[in-house]
Amino acid sequence: MSKIKKCLFPAAGYGTRFLPATKAIPKEMLPVLTKPLLQYGVEEAIKAGLNTIAIVTGHGKRSIEDHFDISYELEHQIKGTSKESYLTEIRSVINACTFSYTRQVEMKGLGHAILTGETLIGDEAFAVVLADDLCDNDGDGVLSQMVELYEKYQCCIVAVEEISPEHSNKYGVIAGDTINDSTYAKDSLVRVNDMVEKPEPQDAPSNLAIIGRYILTPDIFDVLRETKPGKGGEIQITDALLEMAKIGKVIAYKFNGTRFDCGNVDGFVEATNYFYKKRK
User: Where are the domains of the chain?
Assistant: First the structure.
C-alpha cells in the first residue's frame, strides 16, 4: 500500500481579486494575522505526515521561496531579544520539511499547474492544497482526514462541502452514489460518477462543491496530458478527474472542519476575524 509523503501547492496565479495588493505580493503570501496563507497550508500538510512540499510558482513569486528559508540577517538582528520567539513557528516548518519549486510559465488552469508539478512529484500518490482555501479544525485537519481515507480506499479523493445553489458557478460540482462505510458519518462519502466545472445553478448535478483539497494518484498526470482545454479555455482538473470517476476511481468526502474562501475579500476578512477571536 502506497503512503503519501508529498504535497503539491499550485501557487502561480495572479490573485487579481486582491489587486493592487497582489501586484507585488503573491496572494499566497497575504497574511491572516501574522502568518501567510501558504504557511497555514504547509502546517496542515505537516500535521498529516506530508513533509515533502512541492510548490508550483510563477513570475513575481520569489518571496515564497524566501519565506521558507532562513534569513540570517534578520535572525542575527533579533537574536537574544524578545522578538526572537516570533520566528519559532516558521523555523519549525523549515526544519520539518523539504521544499522544491518549479515554475508554471503560462497560466493555463489548475489542471495545467498540477501537471507542471509532475517533475517534483514523480510516480506516487500526492496531496494538493490550494492555499486560498483556509481550513481549520480542532481535531484532525482536513488533509489528515483525507490521508486516512486514501489509505483505506487507494484512489483519488476530493474534499467537498454543501453550497447554496446560486454559488455553483464558482466551483467544480460533483454527483454520485453514497458509500456506506460505518467508519464515517452517514452520507459523508460519495463514489463520484459526474463532475462539472462551474455550472450554472440550473445545470449543477448537486449542491456538493469541490474545495481546494485533493489526493491524487500518479495516473492523473497521464490523464491531464490528454485533457483538452475546458471551461474558460483552461485545462481543468475537474475534467481530468471526471475521466477517473468513469472507472470508479474518485471519492468525494464531506470533511469535518471549517473552510474559508480566502480567494475573495469577504472570505479573507471572515477568516481573519475568526482566527483573531480564536487567538484571543
Answer: 6-279
